[in-house]
Design goal:
The structure is a single chain. This protein is an alpha+beta fold and 192 residues long. It folds into two domains: 87 residues, no CATH class; 78 residues, Phosphorylase Kinase, domain 1. Helix content is 49%, strand content 20%. α1 packs across α3 and α3 packs across α7. It is elongated, with a radius of gyration of 18 Å.
Length: 192
């Protein structure tokens, strides 16, 4: 078993790698993970699990600064921006018809107009629609409004992995409690 200073140093190394790769372009991330796999497979596995969990939680800690009013489908009322990336923005929105909050993913206008981006987005929606698992959010609706495609997902309240890690390292019990349902959901999705 590693001593306390060794465990702290390992956690610091893991967090530094996580911070460096969290926002890195996919090619940079893949190359670094491949090198790390050869250098320290256990550390690489932990980092891969953390990165996957971080992506799955949508970065709920995104800055809540004023942003231009998004072009949301008319049915939804924007509550706040949850996160943004290369494939669009995710907003917390209210569906007044069903009186529920949803995570509304909106494809950027330029990508919506490009055939490849739109088809990838629809593939994502079709794949998500076929999944029914307790650790995978439910897809509620797919549509297009004002030339922009969107997907409405179940909104799950909670803290992101990034927020949790700011409190310090996860002990083995906490890591397993987070990683096991994530691994089960990924295995389920990949089996479909």
């Amino acid at each position: 078993m590693a001593s306390r200073p060794d465990a702290q140093a390992r956690h610091a190394q893991l967090m530094a790698l996580f911070d460096a790769l969290c926002e890195a372009p996919a090619a940079v991330r893949a190359a670094r993970l491949e090198r790390l796999q050869d250098e320290d497979a256990a550390l690489a596995r932990q980092l891969i699990a953390m990165l996957a969990a971080d992506e799955a939680t949508l970065a709920f800690d995104a800055p809540q600064a004023e942003v231009a009013a998004p072009e949301l489908p008319p049915r939804y009322r924007d509550l706040r921006l949850l996160g943004a990336g290369g494939m669009g923005e995710v907003h917390l929105a209210h569906d007044p018809i069903l009186d529920r909050e949803v995570a509304l993913k909106i494809l950027p206008g330029a990508v919506s107009r490009a055939g490849g981006g739109r088809s990838g987005f629809l593939r994502e929606a079709r794949a998500a629609a076929g999944l029914n698992h307790p650790h995978i959010t439910t897809l509620h609706e797919v549509g297009e409004a004002d030339g922009r495609h969107f997907i409405a997902f179940e909104y799950v309240r909670g803290r992101s992995l990034r927020e949790r890690l700011r409190d310090g390292a996860l002990d083995q019990r906490e890591l397993l409690a987070l990683a096991q349902p994530l691994a089960e959901a990924l295995a389920f999705a990949h089996a479909r």
